[in-house]
Please model this.
Amino acid sequence: YRIIQAVGISQIAFGTSLYYCGVDIGYGLGAIAWGYVGQYFSYHMIYIVAGLLLVVMALFDQIIYQKEKI
Model:
């Protein structure tokens, strides 16, 4: 969503398409990656790893976003 806000008014369509392309690529690569991980670990471990990854990425996002605002 931030990519749409980062582009100018004349580039809104480009920013929106770039955002949705990134989402589609993320869904595809995420399914492949978690499929491979799922072969070797139990569901319990996958949920723990996914939760930790989500927290780390949220913190990473906030750190980068705060640096951009300054």
Notes: The chain has three helices and no strands.
